[in-house]
């Protein structure tokens, strides 16, 4: 069911949304270090990635205003090995003109709530570029703790780029065993 906040509708992404989602991601691939991809995937590849996440019942949300997708966020498995099955990794991408308006917080808050309701115990943020203050501050504001920085693990745009690792406990976090 869609949620309405501040004139923006948060809703589940559908396959039809990728004509708008792909250019948002392509912008970040081509102009930023949030993604370490260097060639933007096409719509078909993004739909394939979406289908893999939906098959695992992972949340994938869009923020929409007047039919225009302003940004999107999703959670996916942190790692594929079975012992990581209660840990997810979040991703958020916004149109460039939407940064700093609270939209990322709106999207990530809903992704956190959905992952918690599904019984996940930890959420990991792997943030490209230690200079990405917007993403680091967003995650910090929503309760993520700074775990560390992997210096110079990516090379893009002719420079070495760090990865910042942040983590948030969901539900009981490190508490009792899951049911």
In short:
By secondary structure, the protein is an alpha+beta fold. It contains 4 helices and 8 strands. The protein has a single domain (3-169), classed as Aminopeptidase, CATH 3.40.630.30.
Provide a descriptive summary of the structure in words:
With 179 residues, this protein is of the alpha+beta class. It is 28% helix and 35% strand. The chain has an eight-stranded mixed beta sheet. Strand 5, helix 3 (103-117) and strand 6 form a beta-alpha-beta unit. Helix 1 crosses helix 2. It starts with a strand and ends in a 10-residue tail after the last strand.
Secondary structure blueprint with pairings:
Blueprint (H helix, E strand, L loop, with lengths): L2 E3 L2 E5 L5 H14 L11 H13 L4 E6 L2 E10 L9 E8 L8 H15 L4 E7 L4 H9 L3 E12 L2 E11 L10
Helix pairs in contact: 1-2
The total of helices stands at 4
What CATH first level would be assigned? Alpha Beta
- Principal-axis shape equals globular
**Which architecture per CATH?**
3-Layer(aba) Sandwich
**Beta-strand fraction estimate:** 25-35%
- Annotated CATH topology: Aminopeptidase
Structural class: alpha+beta
Summarize this structure as a short list of keywords or feature phrases.
28% helix; 179 residues; 4 helices; 8 strands; alpha+beta; eight-stranded mixed beta sheet; Aminopeptidase
């Amino acid at each position: 069911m869609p949620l309405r906040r501040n004139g923006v509708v948060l809703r589940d992404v559908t396959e039809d949304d990728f004509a708008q989602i792909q250019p948002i991601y392509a912008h970040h691939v081509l102009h930023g270090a949030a993604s370490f991809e260097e060639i933007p995937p096409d719509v078909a590849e993004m739909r394939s990635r979406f289908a893999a996440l939906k098959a695992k019942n992972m949340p994938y949300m869009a923020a929409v205003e007047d039919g225009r997708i302003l940004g999107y966020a999703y959670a996916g498995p942190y790692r594929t090995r079975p012992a990581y099955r209660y840990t997810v990794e979040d991703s958020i991408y916004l149109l460039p003109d939407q940064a700093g308006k609270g939209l990322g917080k709106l999207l990530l808050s809903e992704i956190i709530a959905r992952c918690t309701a599904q019984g996940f115990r930890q959420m990991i943020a792997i943030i490209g570029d230690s200079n990405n203050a917007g993403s680091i501050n967003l995650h910090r504001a929503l309760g993520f703790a700074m775990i560390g920085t992997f210096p110079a693990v990516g090379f893009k745009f002719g420079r070495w780029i760090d990865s910042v690792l942040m983590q948030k406990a969901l539900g009981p976090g490190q508490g009792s065993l899951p049911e």
